[in-house]
Amino acid sequence: MKPLHVFVLTALCGFGLAVAAVYILAGLGWSLLAGAGALFLIAGFVRRGLTGE
């Protein structure tokens, strides 16, 4: 799997978790927000590796 595909996949999954967490925002919603934050951090790390900065 190409790194660009990994970046897009993790960013989209993070966005999906964040949207789902906003609708729930109870006990499960906070854990979804934490998962979204983790996926956004992973996507940022992969993007940084793609750009070489």
UniProtKB/TrEMBL annotation:
TM region(s), chain numbering: 30-50
Task: Please indicate which superkingdom the organism of origin belongs to.
Answer: Bacteria
Instruction: Enumerate the UniProt keywords alphabetically.
Output: Membrane, Transmembrane, Transmembrane helix
Q: What is this protein called?
A: Uncharacterized protein
Native species: Pseudomonas gregormendelii
Starting at the broadest rank, the lineage of the source organism is: Bacteria, Pseudomonadati, Pseudomonadota, Gammaproteobacteria, Pseudomonadales
